[in-house]
Write a structure and sequence with these properties.
With about 475 residues, this protein is mainly α. Helix content is about 60%, strand content about 0%. Among the domains are: about 20-150, no CATH class; about 280-370, Alpha Horseshoe (Serine Threonine Protein Phosphatase 5, Tetratricopeptide repeat); about 400-485. The chain is built from 20 helices and two strands.
């Protein structure tokens, strides 16, 4: 899949100064502010080469939308703000790629979704059959410079060093900069390191939730696509690298999803979908569609959730995994519930149960280790809750929490939060408060914005019942509980 070489159809416009960003710089000089940007980047494990010239270009409006690395740094420096709050144009409005002054447009490495700026491209529609990408209108030499830095950091010293570079930001290995010997191609050990990164991220998410992991997982994802860009010694290795990079993009997307960063999650899922289509990997494509459907449901786009789930089922059917088909039917059921289509939801739930009853299979993907009876019960509970059948939702949520293996601490917190909310809305405030207390106990080791958001909604429902002792105790403890930042 080659990127388009057609420049943007929009006429050139004079840059509009970014006065908001200039105001945020305050009395600091551009050089002083650039130093603050670099310090902030180090705090979150990013590498940016910001200098006074870059600050001047932002303030002059030459950079309408920063690359993802700078975006993460700026949002870290100014918490609670969005890119538009910082004076930048919305990412969705900055499309196409302006040719450089020479008129040459660098071609994309086949299957490597990174544009000339070193930025990962985002599919325009996650379920669309066209291979289209969003890029930026302004070419920034800092982006290319960062891309070179990443290559030097990650493509050194063979498998052990790449593993260290990829996993170091997650605390699994020391700094990789000690090794200097460059390698031309990635090998089997590199593919193994990438696959291990995916497993470790999933394990940490199962135990501790997404909020503390998302920013730290960005570096392994960059390393994965740097490996793709370097090429592989064998086709089998290349296939593993593409599959691993796609799965890692989905894992990082899920961390964004679970921590409430829906736009970031959508980008990562689209990136995984593009990778799957480039390599013709139906398993990866089904996984990307599966998570896209889940995200669409949570983001209030139920019709998109249905379409993405149905697309996933079409792709997954030949794979021979009944459990995968069961999960995808549940994703479809969630979309129908969001559309208030009870009949469509019930039909999808029946299919999900029928597929599940066929049992596990050797064809079940590795990433589905979380999917068992507890998850099936939990997702069905969410469907009934969306449809307003609180007693039925509470029964399934209670069963989900009881069945869940202790390793999946985050899921136990999620199911129990679902139970608390269903009980509260179903007119059982005391039971809801006791369930809410159990969630607060679990939140001492789980960081999940999703769970905290659900619990906040439950507390609002319980406010009219504050005189009850259990409810009062829960509301007081919830009010004093530290919020995710």
């Amino acid at each position: 899949m080659a990127s388009s070489t057609v420049p943007s159809s929009q006429p050139d416009r004079p840059p509009r100064p970014n006065l908001v960003f200039r105001q945020l710089r305050g009395p600091r000089s551009p050089a002083e502010f650039a130093a603050a940007v670099r310090r902030a980047a180090r705090e979150i494990g990013e590498r940016v080469s910001c200098d006074a010239r870059y600050v001047h270009r932002v303030e002059a409006g030459e950079i309408r939308c920063p690359n993802y690395a700078y975006e993460r740094v700026f949002l870290h420096m100014f918490p609670g703000r969005t890119l538009t709050d910082l004076g930048f144009a919305p990412r969705s409005s900055v499309r196409g790629r302006r040719a450089r002054e020479t008129g040459n447009t660098p071609s994309a490495h086949p299957g490597h979704p990174v544009d000339a700026t070193g930025e990962t491209r985002v599919a325009d529609e996650p379920y669309d059959t066209q291979d289209r990408y969003d890029t930026y209108t302004t070419y920034d030499t800092h982006d290319q410079e960062e891309s070179d830095v990443l290559r030097r950091a990650f493509m050194t010293g063979g498998g052990a060093t790449v593993a260290a570079a990829s996993l170091g930001p997650l605390g699994f290995a020391p700094d990789a900069s000690a090794a200097r010997r460059a390698v031309r191609r990635a090998g089997e050990s590199d593919a193994g390191a990438l696959e291990e990164a995916v497993r470790r991220i999933r394990l940490l998410d199962d135990r501790h939730g997404a909020d503390g992991l998302y920013r730290r997982a960005a570096a392994p994802l960059r390393a994965a696509y740097a490996l793709l860009d370097a090429g592989a010694t064998r086709q089998r290795t290349a296939d593993r690298l593409y599959a691993g990079a796609g799965e890692l993009a989905i894992s990082v997307g899920w961390l964004a999803h679970d921590s409430g960063r829906f736009d970031d999650a959508r980008s990562h899922y689209a990136e995984a979908l593009a990778t799957a289509r480039v390599t013709g990997d139906p398993g990866l494509e089904a996984h990307a569609f599966c998570n896209t459907a889940f995200l669409a449901r949570d983001a209030g786009r139920p019709r998109e959730a249905v379409r993405a789930a149905q697309a996933a089922q079409r792709v997954a059917r030949p794979l021979g995994s009944p459990r995968l088909m069961s999960l995808l039917a549940l994703r479809e059921a969630g979309g129908w519930a969001g559309l208030a289509d009870r009949a469509g939801c019930e039909q999808a739930l029946v299919r999900a149960q029928a597929y599940f009853d066929r049992g596990p299979s050797e064809a079940d993907p590795e990433w589905m280790s979380f999917y068992g009876e507890a998850e099936l019960e939990g997702l069905e509970a969410q469907c009934w809750s969306t449809l307003g059948d609180w007693p039925r939702a509470a029964r399934h949520a209670r069963r989900a929490a009881e069945l869940q293996h202790p390793h999946f601490t985050r899921n136990i917190a999620l199911y129990t939060a679902e139970l608390a909310d269903d009980l509260a809305r179903g007119g059982r405030p005391d039971e809801a408060a006791r369930a809410g207390m159990r969630v607060l106990d679990l939140l001492t080791e789980v960081q999940s914005s999703r769970v905290q958001t659900m619990l906040a909604g439950t507390s609002r429902v319980l406010l009219p019942h504050r005189r009850a002792s259990d409810v009062s105790a829960f509301l007081d403890r919830h009010a004093s509980f530290p919020r995710a930042v």
